[in-house]
Amino acid sequence: MKVSRLVQCIAWAVLAFLVLPSLLIAFMSFGTDPYLRFPPRGFTFDWYRLYFSDADWQSATLFSLKIAIVAAVIAAAISLSTAFGLERVSNPRLKESLRLVLLSPTVVPGIVSALAFYKLFSAVGLTGTFLGFVVAHTILATPFAYLCISSQLHAYDRTLETAARGLGATRLQTFIHVTLPLLSPSIVIGAIFSFLVSFDEAVVSFFISDTQGKTLPRKMFEDIDFSVSPVLAAVATTITVGTILLLAVITILQNRMKRIPSQQKE
Amino acid sequence: MREQQLRLADDRTARVAGREMRVEAVSKKFGQAVAVDDVTLGISAGEFVSLLGPSGSGKSTLLMIIAGFEQPDSGELFLGGERLTDIPPHRRNFGHVFQKYALFPHMTAAENIAFPLKMRGIEKAKRGPMVANALERMRLSALGERLPHQLSGGQQQRVALARAIVFQPALLLMDEPLGALDKKLREEMQIEIKQIQRELGITVVFVTHDQDEALSLSDRVAVINQGGLSQFATPRELYDRPSSRFVADFVGDNNFFPGQLIATAGRKGQVKLDGGKVLAGQLPEGKSIALGAKVEIAVRPEAVSLNSKPDSRVSGTLIDVQFTGGTTTRIVRHASGAIYLSRALSAGSHAAQGDAVSLQWDETSAFIYPADGRA
C-alpha cells in the first residue's frame, strides 16, 4: 500500500509530538548546570550518580519497586482466577456486571479514587504504609492484568484441559502442565502492565503517602516544589528506559503468543 | 425392545490387551433435554465399536460418559467387570483422540506423546524408548521435535493417535477423529487406525456421523438416535436387517413406500399402499405391529429392478440415469412426486430417460416398519 507523502509527514509529526518531551528531558539530564535548562550545557553523568547514591531517592525507588512487584503479582493472580471464574458464569448479565465492577477502577477519575483511598486509609491507619500502597495499586492495576489474561483465555481451547485429564492428568497437573504454560505469556504481560501502572501511579500515591512512606512519583513531585534539579530529569529518563525495556519484553511475548497458537487449526 | 443382549467377553479376551466394557441402562439429561436415554451396550475386549448417529443424537455425550467427563444421571459403567461409574477420567486409563486432535501446542510431538506417561509417573529413562517406539509406529520418527502447528493435519492426527495408545490404554475412545481431514487422508487414516487396533488388540469406541466410516471400520455399530440405542449389530446385519425405519433410512440408501398394514401371516405382512396397491413384505423381528397401523415398506435400491412395461406394481417415470463407475443408479419419479432409486451393476435396465417404468423386487427384500417410530 502506498501512503501519500502528506500522511507520512503527519505521522512523523505526531510521533515527534509524543516522543519529544521525553527526549528533551533525557537531554537535560546530562547538562552541567545545577538546574533544569534547555538547551543543556556541557555533559555529565553527575545527576545519575546523585540519583543512584542519594539515600532519599534510593528509598523512594525501592519502596516503589517493592510495591509495584507485589501489586503486579497479586493483580495477575486475582486476574487469572477471575478470568477463569467469569468464563464459567452462564448468566450473561451477571457476567457483564461482574466484569464492569472489576474494570471500574479504570473509569473512576484518579482524583476520586485518591480521595476515597485517603479517607479510608487515614481512618484505618494505612496511609504511608507498604500495605496501603499495595492494596490501592492492586485495585488500580487489576483491570489491566485482567484484560490481558481474559483476552488470551477467550481464545484458549479448553478441550486441551479435557484432553490432559483424559490422558491421565489430575486437575492440578493439568493446571501446571497445560493451562499455566499456555496462558503464561498473557499472565506475564498482565503482570508487567500492572507493575507499570503501580510504579507510574502518582495521584493516589500523592494522597496516601506520608513523610516516611513515599513512592518515587511522590518524591519527584515534592522535589519539583523545592528545586528543579536535573536529578529529576535523570530519574525520569531512568524510568523511561526501564519502561521501554519492559515494553520490549511485552512485544517479544506477544510475538510468541502469535507463533504458538493456543487454539488448534480449524 | 431396544435393549441389546449383553455380549460378554468371548474367547479372544485372553489374547488381547483391550478390556471389555459394559454400559448399563445409562441415561443423561441436560435440563429438560434427554441426551442419552437408557442405553445398554456390551463391548467385547478387542472389539471395534462405532457409535453412529446424526449430529445431536447423543453419541458424543455417551462417549463423554464412558470417558468420565460427564456423570450419568442413572445407569452404571463396568470395565472388565469392575465398576467404573465413579472413577474420575484421569484414573480410567483410557486413550482419547479428540475431534481436533487437541495436541498441546506448547509441546513438541514427542513431548505430547510423553505426556500421558509423565502423568503416570513413568520415569524419564523409560519414557524415551516408549515415545520413540510410538513415533516409529506412526512413521513420525523424523518429526518428534516439531511443534503441532509445524505439522500437517494428517501428521497431527497421527501424533494424537500415538499419544492415545502409548500407555497401552484399556480402551481407546475416538470422537470423530477424522472429521477435519480431506477424503483421501481420511481413508488412509482409517486403514491405519484399523491396522493398529488389530495389532494391539485394543478395544475401540469410535464416534462418527459418517456411516461409511462406521461400516468399514467397525466390528459392530451402535446406531444412536435421539439419545436411544436404535440397533447394535455388525455392519452386515445393520445394512441387511435394519431393525427400524430410522436405521433403514440412516444407514445406506432406501426406498420407502407408505401404506397401511392390512394382513399378517407369520413374518409376512400385506401392506395397502396409499395408491391402493397391495404389496407383501417382511415384518420386523420381535415386534408386533397392529393391523391397520400406518407402516412403510423399505426396499434397498439394489434390490429394485426396473421393468419398461408399466404393470400392476409401483410405477413412475425414469427421470435420470446416474453412472457412478461400478454401479448405475436410476431415478424414478412416482406420480405422487416421490423419488425412488434403483441401483444395478452397470448393465441394468434398457429403459431410457423419460420412459414409463415399473419397479419390481423380491418380497424377501422388502421390510415393513411402523411409520415414524423412533426405534
Question: Strands, helices and their partners?
Answer:
The complex is a heterodimer of chains A (266) and B (375).
Chain A: H1 5-28, H2 46-53, H3 55-88, H4 92-103, H5 110-124, H6 130-155, H7 159-166, H8 171-200, H9 203-208, H10 216-226, H11 230-259
Helix pairs in contact in A: 1-11, 2-11, 3-6, 3-8, 6-8, 7-8, 8-11
Chain B: E1 21-30, E2 33-43, E3 48-52, H1 59-67, E4 74-79, E5 82-83, E6 94-97, H2 109-119, H3 124-137, H4 153-165, E7 171-175, H5 183-200, E8 204-208, H6 211-217, E9 220-225, E10 228-233, H7 235-240, H8 245-250, E11 255-265, E12 268-273, E13 278-282, E14 294-299, E15 305-307, E16 315-323, E17 327-334, E18 339-345, E19 356-360, E20 366-370
Parallel strand pairs in B: 3-8, 3-9, 6-7, 7-8
Antiparallel strand pairs in B: 1-2, 1-4, 4-5, 9-10, 11-12, 11-14, 12-13, 14-20, 15-19, 16-17, 16-19, 17-18
- Described by the principal axes of the CA atoms, the overall outline of chain A is globular
Distance between the termini of chain A: 30 Å
Strand order of the largest sheet of chain B: 6-7-8-3-9-10
The count of β-strands of chain A is 0
> How widely separated are the two ends of chain B?
9 Å
Q: Give the H and E element order of chain A.
A: HHHHHHHHHHH
The major sheet of chain A is characterized as:
none
- What is the helix fraction of residues of chain B, given as a range? 10-25%
Order of helices and strands of chain B: EEEHEEEHHHEHEHEEHHEEEEEEEEEE
Give a written overview of the molecule.
The complex is a heterodimer of chains A (266) and B (375). Chain A is mostly helical and 266 residues long. Chain A has 2 domains: 44 residues; 204 residues, MetI-like (MetI-like fold), CATH 1.10.3720.10. Chain B is α+β, with helices and mostly antiparallel strands and 375 residues long. Chain B has a 6-stranded mixed sheet, with helices on both faces. In chain B, strands 13-12-11-14-20 form a 5-stranded antiparallel sheet. In chain B, strands 15-19-16-17-18 form a 5-stranded antiparallel sheet, with no helix packed on it. In chain B, helix 2 crosses helix 3, helix 2 runs parallel beside helix 4 and helix 4 packs parallel to helix 5. Chain B starts with 20 loop residues before the first strand and ends in a 5-residue tail after the last strand. Classes of the chains: A mainly alpha (266), B alpha+beta (375). Chains A and B meet through helix 7 and helix 8 of A and strand 6, helix 2 and helix 4 of B.
